[in-house]
Amino acid sequence: ETAKDWWQTAQFYQIYPRSFKDSDGDGIGDLNGITSKLEYLKDLGITAAWLSPIFKSPMVDFGYDISDFFDIQAEYGTLEDFRALIKRAKELDLKIVLDFVPNHSSNESEWFQKSVRREKGYADYYVWHDGKLDSTTGKRQPPTNWLQYFRGSAWEWNEERQQYYLHQFAVQQPDLNYRNPLVVEQMKRVLRYWLNEGVSGFRCDALPPLFEVLPDGDGQFPDELVSGATEDTDDRNYLTTTYIENQPETIDMVYQWRAVLDDHQRIHGGNSSVLLIETYSPAWFTMQFYGNRSTEGAHLPFNFNLITVMEQKGISAASVQEAIDLWLKNMPAGRTPNWVLGNHDKRRAASRYGTEHIDGMNMLVMILPGVSVTYQGEEIGMTDGEISWEDTVDPWGCNSNPDIYEQYTRDPERTPFQWTGGSNAGFTNGSFTWLPLAADYETINVERELSDGLSHLKIYKALVALRNSSKTLQNGSTKYQALSEDVFVVQRSLANSAIVLVINFGSVAKSVDLSKFDKNRTESMLLLIRSIDSTKKEGTQYDPKALSLDPSE
Ligand code: TEU
């Protein structure tokens, strides 16, 4: 057993800076706010925090539209504030990971402005195309039927340059051209710049659309097939995405970024830094990011199966088993698995799984092998905000209409963090918040859950503590099974010790005989429910042969 590197046993936590903590009363979270709360993360047992983008941006996509990759967004703070954040994090032995957004820049970026003007060195920085002429009307048309993620065409006509440009996200997010070596080199400079500022790695945004298929000899791109999955011809689900997603060149680019990180460590020493990869892709594509026999890739391509499989198949022991199988049975040997319950793009875990299941799901990701990634608020069971059409600001929501925006908008999972039950949930001292608060902040908040008997937060803290200290959880073997439609069991074991989690996803009490699951071990099982449940069930004796579980326990 070789010693594990820091990221293999890390507790990752995603901070959405705009909604975490406001230090200056403008209703928008900021860097000094984050710095002031690093001790909170430390106290939870978190070891690494990933910050959603903090770079200069017109905020059309709330930081995922970057106009200067080398500067900090003024409303979030300054480079000095960032350095102070890194310094405090180092004192607390917390790693800071930044968001790297390679697919596109903002249309307000200097690079794009220069590209529009075809300035030397920048003319081919983006994906430009003349389009085609409609044979009957003689009118100019976009080059292909490709759609953006945020509804509508992925091509936008630029009057000044007299060409279309590609944008797989919003119109204000032109796609960078990775077939141009200048772009590839420029983006590596971005990585090196922030590594030199002391960050411990990157969460790489939106990998599927990084490359598009090569155009044919005449410079033409192929249309995607209409998949017929929806009648809504603006919705990307209307198309199959063979040519605009998951190209092999994308995998190789990630291997090149890994080399940038490893080179940095070789030259400057210090700890290794990590690459986390955001890709909602089939396993055959996702798993390649890890690397192959000869080349190292990303340390952790995010595993979203506990989100996506359960979105499709509902909440049951069988869908949990399917989600876990999908990762563990496809992952190349020797790699580190990971488990994600939510992020700023998905409905809040407590709302999606049901508030009654949030503790069980937090237990699940903490008992499974590898690392887990917590989205801010999951530890207290935050739920979705209710955001009216008038208050909608997410471009995906805004690109629809009042009747259907709730299907698309990501605002509900981005509401301000709930620190207290007081004014504006302790998020800001001011009277304004950039998104309305979720309605339940008076009961769901850190202050209250730290004092409450058996709160989501206390359970979460106990789980992380167990996780950070238990050799069985860090190195043990793993067994899991859906015992019935409702009851799911996971066991980790090392030598004579075993830790077992049994979850009842059903709505009625269940009696479970664990000897059916592992007859050799029944006597030595330590049930996870017991080790975290200090008040409710203290002293309760569990009989592994007839364990009784309340609904949602
Ligand atoms: O998301 C990438 C992405 O592909 C999402 O659109 C994803 O398909 C969807 O949210 C799944 O529900 C990343 C960021 O996480 C997102 O916030 C940005 O809007 C997007 O990239 C563009 O940078």
From TrEMBL:
Domain of life the protein comes from: Eukaryota
SMART domains according to UniProt: Aamy (SM00642)
SUPFAM superfamilies according to UniProt: (Trans)glycosidases
GO molecular function list: alpha-1,4-glucosidase activity
A biological process term (GO) from this entry: carbohydrate metabolic process
Key word Signal present: yes
EC numbers, comma separated: 3.2.1.20
Catalytic reactions of this protein: Hydrolysis of terminal, non-reducing (1->4)-linked alpha-D-glucose residues with release of alpha-D-glucose
Domain Glycosyl hydrolase family 13 catalytic, chain residue ranges per copy: 14-414
UniProtKB keywords: Glycoprotein, Glycosidase, Hydrolase, Signal
Similarity comment text for this entry: Belongs to the glycosyl hydrolase 13 family.
Name this protein carries in UniProt: alpha-glucosidase
Species for this entry: Drosophila erecta
Lineage: Eukaryota, Metazoa, Ecdysozoa, Arthropoda, Hexapoda
